[in-house]
Amino acid sequence: MLPRTQLQSIFCLDWRKLVVSTKDSDVIDQAEALTRILSRMRPLRPRNVALADSLGCFAAHDIAAPIALPPFDNSAMDGYAILARSCHVGARLRVTGEQPAGGDLHLRGREGDAIRIFTGAPLPDGADAVIMQEDVERQGEQIILRSEVRPGDFVRRSGGDVAAGQKIVSAGERIRPETIALLAAQGVCSIEVGGEATAAIIATGDELASGSEPLRPGQIYDANTPMIHALLQELGVRVRSVACCADRQESITNAVQAGRDCDVIIISGGVSVGARDFVKPALAAAGAQLELWRVAVKPGKPFLFGHASQCAMFGLPGNPVSAFVTLLLFVRPAVLRLMGASDDAIRLPSWSASLATGVFNDGERPHYMRGALRGGEFLPLARQESHAVFGLSQSNALLLVQPGQRIAKGETVRIFTWK
Fold first, then answer.
1. For position 272, what pLDDT does the model report?
2. Mean pLDDT over residues 95-101, rounded?
3. What is the CATH classification number for the domain harbouring 60?
4. Which DSSP symbol is given to 124?
5. What is the CATH number of the domain that holds 289?
6. Number of domains in the chain
7. H or E element: which one contains 7?
8. Residues near 140 by Cβ (< 8 Å), separated by ≥ 6?
């Protein structure tokens, strides 16, 4: 199991302050839950993909630069390549050639000479500086210098950006558009990345209706499945199946059995202690081993994790906000670990912000309050109920407030985002 110091580094939290109510002896804290989950996540087999298809994936290995960047000394400006020691304001130099960007013409610069050169063109042998074309006066085959020149002016030295053999990508690093630019500049056409995780989503509840059908009395539209699907897509997970089950153990068991060839099964609803919460017995009937149930976080206490063979199974609360928060805290790091992400890549982005209004947690569990981060200020939502999906849609950050903690308006707080 992972040490708490490592988990602390993943989420930038002080786990010692994550309090568990003594009234629920089987409720565990967030750190313990995440330790158990991540200890079960084995990175999938790496795969080789075209560089153009690697966006959002995680590098399977460290990558060293095969070539230096720039690969040769070249000009940073349009101008004239010269030997600096022969130059001063008012000096006249003879233009002896022209070096465009592209093939090296193997020209040679000599004292008293200048070679017309363009941005990115190889620096001629013997030249050690470039003077911009704006800083000279051209008179036929001569130029008159209007500014001082020092060795190295407007010269991009070979290896000045990247040295050959230098590590340019670390194992577990997310491949971003900027990373692709760097690798393309090295002539890399394909890259080994972590495996593609697959998922099955199961929604439970007699009250659920899909958006394609009219609501009957007592029904609500299923918001969790589209939300879970969208978050998984953002993470690069391929959703292979989606099922909606009535509150029947057999129906849920069959859906679990059908999804066991995926790396992850995510079930929403039916994980609490009600008489019609059938997820736990359905998982047991499907041969799953339960690892944990109920975590000391708000919202999201009735959270479940188990596994069957290589398939990780997550049971989320039915309320959309609770499902969303537990997705961020537990499912997100788990699937990123499967995909080969490093601890840095797993970490939720965190920021310092000024609190726009005072808050108080009068409960017994750490509370992740939703709110909006704008211009360095965090404004908690007025409604923090776990069903309030409109408020969730207006939020872009979480604030962790410990049990009994009061934070005054204007205090600096650490907030977490998911983008």
1. 76
2. 97
3. 3.90.105.10
4. P
5. 3.40.980.10
6. 4
7. helix 4-11
8. none
Task: Tell me the three state secondary structure of residue 279.
Answer: helix
Kindly report which listed range (2-11, 15-24, 199-208, 286-295) carries the lowest average pLDDT score.
Answer: 15-24
Q: How far is CA 247 from CA 203, 254, 268, in A?
A: 10, 12, 12
Last residue of a domain, one of 143, 175, 193: 193
Where does residue 415 rank: exposed (0-12), middle (13-18), buried (19+ CB within 10 A)? buried
SS3 assignment, position 371: strand
The residue count of the chain comes to 419
Residues of the domain holding 53: 48-67+167-193
Q: What is the pLDDT of residues 316-370, one digit of tens each?
A: 999 999 999 999 999 999 999 999 999 999 999 999 999 999 999 999 999 999 9
Contact 165, 64 (CB under 8 A): yes
For the segment 380-399, what is each residue's pLDDT rounded down to a tens digit?
A: 998 898 898 999 999 999 99
The DSSP letter of residue 311 is E
- Determine the pLDDT at residue 25: 55
Closest to 3 measured CA to CA, from 36, 42, 43, 44: 36
Omega of the bond prior to 71 within 30 degrees of 0, cis?
Answer: no
Confidence of residue 5 (pLDDT cuts 50, 70, 90): very low
| 256 contact partners, CB below 8 Å, separation of at least 6 | 202, 265, 267, 282, 283, 286, 288, 308, 313
pLDDT band at residue 192 under the 50/70/90 scheme: very high
Contact 131, 82 (CB under 8 A): yes
Burial 116-138 (b: 16+ CB within 10 A, else e): bbbeebbbbeebbbbbbeebbee
Q: Do 417 and 373 form a contact (C-beta atoms < 8 A)? A: yes
Is 161 inside a domain boundary?
A: no
Q: What residues are paired with 307 via a beta bridge?
A: 289, 312
pTM, whole model, 2 decimals? 0.85
Q: Report the relative pairing of strands 113-117 and 377-380 from DSSP bridges.
A: unpaired
Is 39 domain-assigned? yes
Contact between 122 and 73 (Cβ < 8 Å)? yes
Which residue, 400, 332, 347, is CA-closest to 371? 400
By the 8 A CB rule, do 249 and 257 touch?
no
Band (pLDDT 50/70/90 cuts) for residue 86 is confident
Whether residue 133 is contained in a domain is answered as yes
What are the Cα distances from residue 191, in Å, to 50, 53, 71, 204, 205? Answer: 6, 9, 21, 40, 43
342 and 363 both lie in a single domain: no
- Asked if 234 and 340 sit in the same domain, the reply is yes
Per DSSP, 331 falls in state I
The per-residue pLDDT for 383 is: 87
